[in-house]
Predict the structure.
Amino acid sequence: MKLLKLVPDDTNIKFLRWRVPFYVVSILLIAASWGLVLTKGLNYGVDFAGGLNITATFTESTEAPVGDLRDTVSELGYGEPVVQRFGDDNQVSIRVPLPDSVEGNPEAAQNIANAIVAELEASFADFRLDGNENVSGKVSDEFRSDAAFALIAAMLAVALYIWIRFEWQFGVGALFALFHDVSLTLGMFSLFQLEFSLQIIAAILAIIGYSLNDTIVVYDRIRENLKKYRKMPTPELLDLSVNETLARTVMTSLTLLIALVPLLAFGPASLFGMVAAITLGIFVGTYSSVYMAAPILIWLGVDSHSFVPTETEADKQDKIARGEA
Amino acid sequence: MLDFPLWKRGWFWGLTLALTALALPSIFSLSGARWPAALPDPEVNLGLDLAGGSHILLEADPTEVAVQRLRNMEESVRSTLRRAEPAVSFGDVSTAEGRLSFMVQSVADVDRARSLLEPLLNGEGLVREWNLTVVDETRIVLTPTEAGLEAAVNAAMDSSQDVIDRRINALGTREPTIIRQGENRIVVQVPGLEDPDQVKELVGRTAKLEFKLVNENALQTDLAQGIAEPGQQIFPYAPDSPFFGQNVAVYRLGGIDGGSLIRAQASRNQDNEDVVVIQFDQQGGNRFAKLTSENVGKQFAIVLDGEVISAPVINDRILSGVSEISGSFTPESAQQLAISLQSGALPVDLTVVEERTVGPDLGAESIRLGLLAMLVGSIAVVTLMIASYGRFGVYATIALIFNVLMILGIMALMNTTLTLPGIAGFVLTIGAAVDANVLINERIREERKRGRRVIAAVENGYREASRAIFDANITNFIAGVLLFMFGTGPIRGFAVVLIIGLFTSVFTAVSLTRMWVAGWLRRTRPQDLNI
């Protein structure tokens, strides 16, 4: 039986020929992402912004009355609600920011939540409350700082590990690739104003994990080739390493994608944001392993000496003493 | 490298099958079937986002604990100094700025007061809870220490947890979780509950019950402006009382509080009203008898958490120590009040700072969709693996199945909770396991292409790929641990699956497949590999 081969044998694609333009584009994208995040901001869900979030299904309708919902809730005078389709067409999420006056007064927040739910139940006959979240500003602030800390700590910790296992250039390269992935993901969320919640933080950490997998596989091969082909110029050696691992890269990305696509297509609505972020991360992560993490090694000055133990004065004395030199 | 002695094979299979067996009860119940009751059943718990239910995060205000503690200290100091023989006279007591300060009459009294108060200053284990200083010769100042405050908050939270535990358990719901989180928070999780408001009512209520004599001559207009005579206190009527909007002035002293209750029960009186019948202990009963016999014909207010629920007239003295509280109750609210009173008052007010509720319908739907999506995804992955790597793909597939079962088994063993993000964690883990096999198989292909003989190619494939697999998993492990440390709730569920999955996927994707490949190579000694 002939087996399926997605990548032909002995590919020789000059990935790194275009490294400078790719780098320019990527750095521009990173800058644009941060520009977006800083100016337009992220669409924080209740986890990070505090407030109320009500999810509901309209059991008798094929489509949720989004406009009516917005009017009904805003007439109650607690602030402008964000009403979004969520999952099926007859499901919605209604987010209501809490007025500043109830900040630090959870009981008042509770009363508002109850009032809104009661009004919705009275106004819409087939309203079914699926879920209800109510996060106080204090807790959401904590979630935000904890999440930011977890992201930064995770990135630094893995970079440190790679530094120890490889060389400092590899640690810097991996850190840069991760920074690229996280920036672009945040930029996407800001651009499309997708809801940013705790689950998305989990997704970003998963992206970090996945992108690292990729980066490490490429780096591992670079390290191996640096020892094997001592005379090869670095750009050529990097290209060779990326090509050698190409079959694996394609195969793994593809299998992960085909595992994720069903979850995207008909998985639970509450997972959609998270799965979408991870799916996006697979593309971004694969790209960054090849085009960000590898070329930076050229500029950081990696060569075959990196993995040859340097001979110190003491070693020389040792050799002389043993009569080898 | 490809040598697997019998003991090693036995060990691998033993571990695999043992952990797989642990997963069986969970699979049975996830698929809706019943696991025989006679067998032990370690099961994976379903998170609230899957099972439906309520998650409530309660927070106590440490400054409130400090204020109460200061009040108690003031009480102790007063009685200690008064009871001394001869009594130490003191005055100008103040509790401003979180400190207790008072003046004694002469310099000679300072030393006596100091030695009398010394036993009050240390807590359990001789932790210094208060510092005593003397200023201006005769003024004694007691300042709470950091350690003392911490211990007080801790004790208040511990007993709050007990009280909440009793209240929730009185509801008779299945497997509630009540755990402390951080210094001053408590998480309450009640799976599969239809009415989350019921839980909120129960845990959000302090249930501090007081019986106070009413000053019937006070004017409503004065009370509305907050003007009360000295020694009196103003309380509003509760919102569901017919007198809501009015206020009541009560005498501070001479009342009884709910601390001496031994029983509270919802009931109906002869007028068919819902009431709560309460019974005092011996001491409380005596005081209640005294209060009622001395004040027949007068009004006493029943005050719950600072609101008057009713203010009946005392018709007759009550000697039995049994009384009933009436006041616009429904059967449910009477039941809830009875539970709250029976389980005791919370030592501190707790406020709800985070609340999440998931309806049971949505949860069930999420599981069904999540499992279906996983199934479809797995079939697609398996097809691709077998099409690409043939026999090696089959080994990878079997390893993958064991991988999923082992994760479930370990989760059941550790009694962890499967959440919705946890399902995504599963998908990712499957990805990691697949990646390991892809790395190995691609490497074997390479080695064959370079002309290595079969056994050497397989050996090299596993060895060379292991390095990258190891590094990738360690870094993911680091990320998973950080996620677990800083994540909350469902995110932790994701981290747990990820961390467990790293271990099982390395074991199944590397060790098990290697054992199978080795067995096959030994048996058939193939001259070529179809890979």
About this structure: Chain B touches chain A through 78 residues (CB under 8 Å). Residues 180 and 186 of chain B are 4 Å apart (CA to CA).
